[in-house]
Amino acid sequence: MAGRNKQPLNRSITIGCVIFILVLCVLLSVANLTIYRNYVYSDYRSYIAELLDFAMAHIDGDDLKNCIETLEESDKYKETLHIMDEMMDHFKDIHYFYAVLPLNREDTGNVMSVLSAERYYDRYIDTEGNLYLGWISDDEFDSETVAKFFEIMEGDDIVYFEEKTEWGTDYTGAVPIKDSSGKGIAILAADIDISFINGMIKEYAFINIGIIAAVGLLFIGLFLLWSRRNITGPIKQLEQSAVGFVDHSRGQRSVDALSFHAPEMKTDNEIKSLSDAVVKMAEDMRDYVSEIIKAEIKAKNMQELANRDSLTGIRNKTAYDNEIKRLQAMVEHGDKKLGIAVIDLNFLKKTNDVYGHENGNLVIQKLCAIICRIFAHSPVFRIGGDEFAVILRGVDYDQYDQLKQRFDAEIERMAGDETLEPWERVSAAIGAAFYDESLDDNLNSLFRRADYEMYEQKKRMKAERDD
Description:
This protein is of the alpha+beta class. The chain is 58% helix and 14% strand. The strands form two sheets. It has a five-stranded antiparallel β-sheet with strand order 2-1-5-4-3. Helix 1 (2-56) packs parallel to helix 7 and helix 1 (2-56) packs parallel to helix 8 (270-306). The longest helix has 55 residues, at 2-56. The radius of gyration is 32 Å and the shape is extended. It starts with a helix and ends with a helix.
């Protein structure tokens, strides 16, 4: 009788052990995957928020309201659309970038296009399907989506949602555009293609499940050896602790919350070792997720540092070279309205030798602040120890002469300001050149012409000083 009872008990323990490990693996995988997925989506929310904030900074609500009412594009409207087009070209993962006005909650004719950004190719080459101010949708937006647009326009905050389309999956962030009275006049939205994220998450899930399953299988093999002994009591204690861990871990968003508390064992036998193994498994999984998150943060920070000048905080020579490659491709596609300004600091060696390198660094930072303030609409790069470059496009391209006058006036004012320390009287020369097919084979020759203009001014400044 005893022998017959022993076999069912072993079978029951075996079945219970297998079920327990499977449940544990699934729940750990789900919790781990949920944390990872939320982290990735949080990063995309921050990314979309930056895109929307940058675009909103260039939108004049009252001017846009007048454009909607008259269906005529103002200069400010065209400038804003141009900036949004540039963002589309720069950020390749933007699927759609647009502003719309919900008209009614019906299924047709319910949304009017206000702003619709396009990449250069779509805007100027393959223009079929481009949307313009005043275009009314037929059935592109269902009533549920339009209702959501109305809620966003009447609110104040960015709203995020995910949509499946025939082209894939988009993650959308939308924010209301308001006039000076605070009334919503439209919504601005950015759709980011996240189809590849789902694939990445699936890949991560397979790896994660594989590791957990491997540990689980090892655990089962060991436990089946220990199950030869009468261990129903300790197993019950262990099962209760495991269920508590599962209940505590479900829905958690923090890696630190994935902590397994072993039951108190009165005997130091195989069951105690099993309890320690489960604790170690949970710790390994938590450490695994933590290391993944740290690695992603480190990779992102390293990429940022690689393109950032440590002294001034602006983009460096590496970032400049990458930007020139991008602009060269745009020029080859016909977008040739750009220029380069080169600014070189005078007397840096003298400042370092006489007043020390610390004050020399302060001079570089002060000149950088002046350049960024005057050329507020253009990217600024530090391409050498005392040399800066500005990519002139848009407003700064059109108004370069006025901006140069402001720059020269600022330098001249500091030169005569007796209240400043000698090293604070920043002296710099500026030169610029604008792309000309007859003169420039590429953007490197454009830079050389700008550099030549800068050195010509430097000579004139030296001659005036010697006189």
